[in-house]
Amino acid sequence: MPGGAGDMKRSTMRPMQHSSKLQNVRYELRGPILQAAKAMEAEGHRILKMNLGDTAPFGLEAPESVVVDMIHHLRGAQGYSDSKGIFSARTAISQYYQTRGLMTIGVEDVFIGNGVSELISMTLQAFMENGDEILIPAPDYPLWTAAVTLTGGKPVHYLCDEDENWWPDMADVEAKITPRTRGIVIINPNNPTGAVYPRHILEQFASLARKHDLVLFSDEIYEKIRYVDAPHIHTAAVAEDVCVLTFSGLSKAYRMPGYRAGWVAVTGPRTVTAAYRESLELLASLRLCANVPAQHAIQTCLGGYQSIEALIRPGGRLRDQRDLAGSC
Question: Where are the beta strands (DSSP E) in the chain?
């Protein structure tokens, strides 16, 4: 029929191929299983998706005061912000870490991103060369492995021992360090094992970083969600003389993953990290800025009532769900 599909000229363009950088990238949390779930939804089935750490479908909502505060700032959040993030939010992050003993973290040491996910890629891109290696815990949070691969690097997995509280096997960590190793990823509290690392484990990571001139990537997004008396210790607190990147954000403790508000704080001797900091500032500028409305939620979250504490103590919903899962 005229004008129909049969009337279209046959394309002479050759089929597009995916980039070779995707050859070994896997992210099964959003892979074939999710596609099958979407197909079932299209057929009318109700699917409860548990592939992502999304709190909203389970009725765990952001604190009302935070939502109201963000709405209040909407009209003033229509333009770009400073590429590193709005000053009040970075100040709140800096002050939070200072109350935790990290006195060297100032406002200019903080970069705000569209969730920690964006910052993982940015911090890797800022210094890695093709073929560089990054050590990543196994079992792993797959985004770290994928981000290293996409940056042109090689992810090397070190073992976490199930029989030893899922703590890292430090002998295995050191055995996997080569001349191409540039950094070590530490996820504490760990995703997916839930392990909280004691001081002596973190001190051993710091010692390896000093010995082999490595950067420590400390993913601490779950730092406020703990169900036992084990304290959370920031990696940067035991490695002041090492370049440490401390990641956190609002997605888990404040139940707002869709707001995309995360940050990274850079610590370590400025004489050593100066060029790296410049690279991060360049990359932050290239993406213009992070989601501005969500940045206005950061100060309210960090400075106000910590509703997560009621959820994780005995009788709290998260604690009860954890206990129920543990008894199965």
Answer: 110-113, 133-138, 154-161, 167-168, 181-187, 215-219, 244-249, 262-267
Tokens of 22: 């995707």
**pLDDT tens by residue, 186-240:** 999 999 999 999 999 999 999 999 999 999 999 999 999 998 888 999 999 999 9
Angle between helices 142-150 and 115-125 (to 10 degrees): 40
Distance CA 11, CA 9 (A): 6
Bond before 57 cis per omega within 30 degrees: no
Strands 110-113 and 244-249: unpaired
Q: E strands, 90-173, where?
A: 110-113, 133-138, 154-161, 167-168
In contact, 255 and 225? CB cutoff 8 Å: no
User: Rounded to two decimals, what is the model's pTM?
Assistant: 0.87
Task: Please report, for the chain, the start and end positions of each structural domain, with discontinuous segments joined by +.
Answer: 74-308
Roughly what angle, to the nearest 10 degrees, separates helices 292-303 and 87-99? Answer: 30
* Distance set, CA 114 to CA 9, 67, 118 (Å): 42, 17, 6
pLDDT, tens digit (0-9, with 9 covering 90-100), for 231-290: 999 999 999 999 999 999 999 989 888 889 999 999 999 999 999 999 999 999 999 999
3-state class (DSSP) for residue 138: strand
CATH class of 74-308: alpha beta
